[in-house]
Write a structure and sequence with these properties.
The chain is mainly alpha-helical. It has one domain (4-142). Helix content is 70%, strand content 0%. Helix 1 (8-30) packs antiparallel against helix 2 (39-56) and helix 2 runs parallel beside helix 5 (110-142).
């Protein structure tokens, strides 16, 4: 019986496609406040590239590059970015996530600063969604035992 991750053609095609998928995901995240897309959609696309790694190679191959500890850190990092931007807005005297107030600490006009604040939020959401989707996939495929070595 041939396992899927033993196929050389699939592995070569995935080595080419995964960076392209990840680049497109970053594009969707970065342009989410100007066009359709955003952090959630980009995070799902980014997670799909990591899931493709597992399908094309192996779970152990993926765990060497993106362990459960790194995945949990990425979830926390995305939430931290989101919360920090909102907290900075509160500390500057505005409502939570009112990005226009960020012009007090950033050298730009309020319109550009509002776009930068939105981009920061989209990045935080994208990181969190990507890490959570990968975690859900790994937990479903391994019955929650992927970090214990029982797979």
């Amino acid at each position: 019986m041939i396992r899927l991750y033993d196929d050389l053609i699939i592995q070569v095609v995935c080595r080419i496609m995964i960076p392209l998928i990840q680049f497109f995901a970053l594009y969707v995240i970065a342009h989410g406040h100007y066009s359709p897309g955003g952090g959630f959609q980009g995070g799902c696309i980014l997670a799909a590239s990591f899931i493709l790694m597992v399908i094309a190679y192996d779970l152990d191959w993926m765990k060497k590059r993106f362990s459960e500890i790194k995945n949990t850190f990425m979830v926390a990092l995305g939430i931290f970015i989101y919360a920090l931007i909102g907290l900075i807005c509160i500390l500057l005297g505005a409502e939570y996530l009112n990005y226009g107030i960020l012009h007090k600490i950033l050298p730009a006009d309020p319109i550009k600063v509002r776009a930068l604040g939105t981009l920061g939020i989209e990045i935080g959401v994208g990181i969190t969604v990507m890490a959570v989707m990968v975690s859900i996939f790994l937990n479903l495929t391994t019955y929650g035992r992927h970090e214990k070595g029982e797979v």
